[in-house]
Amino acid sequence: MEKNMPTSATVERWADYEWVLEGPQDGNPFRDVTLAARFTHLSRSLDVAGFYDGDGRYIVRLMPDMTGTWQGVTASNSPELDNRTLTLTCTTASPGNHGPVRVSNTWHFSYEDGTPYLPFGTTCYVWNHQGDALEEQTLRTLDEAPFNKMRMCVFPKHYTFNSNEPEYYPFVRSQDGSWDFTRPEPAFYRHLERRIRDLRDRGIEADLILFHPYDRWGFAAMTPEQDDAYLDYVVRRLAAYRNVWWSFANEYDLMTKTTADWERLAQLVVTRDPWQHLRSIHNCRHFYDHTRPWITHCSIQRTDNYRTSEYVNEWRQRYRKPVVVDECAYEGNISNNWGNITAEEMVRRFWEGAVRGGYVGHGETYMHPQDILWWSKGGTLHGQSPARIAFLRRIQEEAPVAYLDDAPAGSGPRDLPCAGQPGRYYLYYYGFNQPTSKTFTMQEGVRYRASVIDTWAMTIRELPGTYTGHFTIDLPGKPYMAVRLEKAGD
Amino acid sequence: MEKNMPTSATVERWADYEWVLEGPQDGNPFRDVTLAARFTHLSRSLDVAGFYDGDGRYIVRLMPDMTGTWQGVTASNSPELDNRTLTLTCTTASPGNHGPVRVSNTWHFSYEDGTPYLPFGTTCYVWNHQGDALEEQTLRTLDEAPFNKMRMCVFPKHYTFNSNEPEYYPFVRSQDGSWDFTRPEPAFYRHLERRIRDLRDRGIEADLILFHPYDRWGFAAMTPEQDDAYLDYVVRRLAAYRNVWWSFANEYDLMTKTTADWERLAQLVVTRDPWQHLRSIHNCRHFYDHTRPWITHCSIQRTDNYRTSEYVNEWRQRYRKPVVVDECAYEGNISNNWGNITAEEMVRRFWEGAVRGGYVGHGETYMHPQDILWWSKGGTLHGQSPARIAFLRRIQEEAPVAYLDDAPAGSGPRDLPCAGQPGRYYLYYYGFNQPTSKTFTMQEGVRYRASVIDTWAMTIRELPGTYTGHFTIDLPGKPYMAVRLEKAGD
After folding, report:
1. A274-333 residues touching B, CB cutoff 8 A
2. Looking at the structure, do residues B193 and B134 belong to the same domain, yes or no?
3. B243 to each of B98, B115, B252, B276, B278, how far by Cα in Å?
């Protein structure tokens, strides 16, 4: 424990700064000691709640989001912790630190510094509960993978392929062996925070699942008071990490909580998160009402085995929020249909979502002799979709437009999507269809460069010359092809 | 022309018998001469309208549908044709002649003799307008193909890949070159009838399209009176062929007729067809109201590029009629999305429909140097789906149950169909999913033989022993697999 805290410090914008204070250890400090700090920056102030980290150690964790000087002062019911002050100098962010992700242009995301953020997520629900060896293998895999968002749970998971005990538990046990829900386990959170930082340092957003139904320990069946205390502690500890997103549930509709419960929990986070991280709630069978104002974006699990990301444009219109299809099913070969689509089908779903202006997420569920399935435990990737997802990400990131919206197609059958921005950039995707040509009727006078993209073979063939008005592009008569038109000179 | 008509004849049940009479040639006999015959069989009588076939030749075409003696007597406004009599002896049908197809068990079909009829249709819209060489090639192809229904038009077709003139026209031209819609061309109909008989002799139902929008001759733009006269003549000539179905339109919603027009045309056929052949009406963008009483079964074109035959069980419940997905898209590689799905996807759509208790139709649209695409002109088949459709047909026809209904699955994910009859026969299909196993929870005490079917490789692997209660079947972890459970001893 640090005995002599500095009264001034320097930290870069959107970093997490820890103001560590020493305070009382007697009784139950988690429950009994209040601690908050007000940070003032010019005409703005930010109220940040602190938390007890055990062993007399109190922390106020701050993400300064404006450069310049912040003046902090604490308030506490403990005299030791009350009226402490801090001068914090916030410098410009270092390269690669763009701040937290925000909703942008209705259906998209950007980092707080304005850089577009296009989510290419994956799911390893409890990779953070598997022990250091496997967790570090997961991180090495992520170093090579195309993913910039990780869907993961705070709590451990009990389910098929998930029978192991976690390394850490979120609560301290009472003497009778039951959980003392009034005493969070600091070691649990320090480990979780380490993994969140590991993701952050790799440019990966942590789409943190706060509640889920797959439980044998009792964490899915806490009382409302216990839920509130847990969630309050989570927000105090984790809100200062710029890469945190709040996913209220994986499959809220498989839990026993009521809509009133979810709304109360949402309001708790809305009220107490000083940085207003992204918030979503993920379904199993039925969507939550994504029109609720506290929901920043749709986090969708497919409710139809056949059509999935083909609904993205409808959902965009219905909700007028970003549409993230976090679970379109997973590449793999397990018995369950949510976990046995081919790599081709996974990639197809990514493209179908992308050209409708949405964002599809990855997961992988190949049978494994030690039950190490990427979708839950991480480890290594075995499938063929990640390379193709990287290819799609490259195409989207290299586009001359920041975001793909479903554009009115220049021509083509009524049932085919086209992404882009009218007059500048079009990305047509033909999915499982295998045309030998496609005819386009574009605005006369605008000249386009055209490329034929094989989304499976990962090749881009730029056609010579330019095209305008009415023209036909030959295609190889096989599935998974795309055509890209880019305004010449752009 | 036969001068001396027999006054008695013998014909087998459900054959077409032609009672040929000589009559007046002056004026316009098509319009001016009435002719009908009443056929009496025990306590039953059947009123059959005759038709003028040109050159003073009048025909009453009869399909006797009960064995025994039929007594016929004509009525006409021409004394030559009036009050003529005929004794017709109807013998039992020869093997392979099962009579016309009827709706059976709400969602299915059987021939009139009770033999189940499972439609495995194909489409060659105007194969009958291509001249004898190509038409006979089409018939040779059909000899080897698995299809027992042909979707085909009365009128010729004008469309992409269809620029040739037909061999025959349905009307005689006036001296000014325009059509005389009051004078059907007998040669046109004799040719059509020959092709209908060619299909009949191969066990193929002629799903005859009465109107369609793809026209450059004016046949899609006749007046209501012209439509009625045309349709009346068609019914008089063709209703005695047991393998005729009336498909009122291909893509009724692309024509200029109103719902009132369609309803009037339907009532004409309902009133005048003595044998009440099957009746349907096929959509492009929007279904006709398939709840209309005159519609015997749903003839569906997919309205969704992605989900097609996966809707069959919903349509079954909505309409409570047989569901025939006549156009689920075609195997091929043309530009249009309705004509460029892979063979794998075509076969998948057949299976998805079959295991939901429906019937899917085939078509093929591979680019051809002479524009001979099977879907419209016939010729030869180039694709890989027909062999797999034959395999599915064999499986369905060999099943110990007459029809596949969507059965409550013994177990399995909520979003997977299963066909069969509870307790006797189950056919599970896994489509594009690639499970390495599936677990079943069946009724204890009923023992099943199990087979693993590769619907693409066309293999059936019968597993040793029998299964009951809760069990798991290993699968190869690739797409397009099915599992069949048959009650042991059946």
Report:
1. 304-307, 310, 333
2. yes
3. 10, 14, 23, 12, 10
